[in-house]
Amino acid sequence: MRDNIWKSYNEKDILELNDLCEDYKKFISKCKTERECVKNTIKLVETQGFKSLESLINDNLDIKTGDKIYVNNMNKAIALFTIGEEDILNGMNILGAHIDSPRLDLKTNPIYEDTNFAYFDTHYYGGIKKYQWVTIPLALHGVVVKKDGNVIDIEIGENLTDPVVGITDLLPHLAKEQMKEEASKVIDGEKLDILIGSRPIKTNDKNAVKKFILEFLKNEYNILEDDFLSAEIEIVPAYGARDFGLDRSMIMAYGQDDKVCAYTSLMAFLDVAKCKKTTCCILVDKEEIGSLGATGMQSSFFEDVVREISMLLGHRDINALSRILKNSKMLSSDVNAAYDPLYSEVFEKNNSSYLNNGVVFSKYTGARGKNSSNDANAEYVAEIRKIMDDNKIKFQISELGKVDAGGGGTIAYILANKNVNVIDCGVGVLSMHAPYEVTSKADIYETYKCYKAFLNEAS
Hints:
- There is one protein chain.
- This protein is an alpha/beta fold.
- The chain has ten helices and 22 strands.
- The protein has two domains: 5-101 and 254-457, 3-Layer(aba) Sandwich (Aminopeptidase), CATH 3.40.630; 103-237, Aminopeptidase i, Domain 2 (Roll).
- Strand 11 (242-244) and strand 12 (250-253) form a beta hairpin.
């Protein structure tokens, strides 16, 4: 374990760190879903001169050195490129993060009434401890798409004047049998239903409370019950990011896995003005459920976009894409489980990441016998070490817990399967996958500097 890096900071470092983290808190408080991340990213990059690839193609415009391009994939993933001075066949320097996080999703037919209570029925998304989601204030984020194509944005529970919703729990006085259950069974998945109302309409109709809620939705949002058939509503912890610790050295927020790496990747990418190599930042969906689907990293989206850009740059050789990927370098921008002394039994001290020790590299992830792992080449790790040391960036190399304690994965192996040199790199997190996670401001700062140095210097 290295020295706490706060000791090494001067006044200038502290000012830069605080500015970055204040902006990050605003971002993660506003962007709790993948759709919100993409929407706000497009809004930001267009102010900095980025053009959509679709508009360039429609206007029959050439692509040239210095061009800034983005591609929106179904409003839930986005790829950004700055065309470098070198031929793209020499490869790209890529930062890749995911913008989905564990949560609860509304089922397709979500609303029902039971004993004068109205509920939303849910299906949890990603790896959660179900018991952590009860008795906390929850908010609704998402979209409802009408049959005519009209999209209605939903955000309820974030403003202090908004109502919140939540999941009730059994009082300890009556929980004798519940308390005997294993932690994974204390709260059943089908009991993660959201209490949304208890007031009936003034009739003797059956399901009068449900009808009151439906009237509210119709009057306030023009949403009918059948419209939930074409909706994507996510239930997330209410309220924004907060400074954590009496010394304000940490941040507590929902969704820091992996939005803390998505934000620092995006900021580093935008702050690198000119590069020899083409630079890329890709923010993808569905990592928490295997990176599947059209907006996940396993889709053909990224390869299709790179192929199209290379063709617009004049490369129509059938092997151009494979050459570009082979010559590319990537940081899979994803978090790592930081050492927690309260749960030391699952960590191996010499190979753990620690808060306030800098950006974390993971040569391999996976589970137990490196199953489903990307194992970065030693030559590539050596190159990364040199970039970090040359730029005086504080870093650590870590595994994810003890060998047989469990494990996890990222999008790294997917790009590695395309012959890209890739290593996992990101911020250490306490309480990962909990409704509210904790990170170090110093580690966020070092991670941003790491990503920026990588884009500038990876060969």
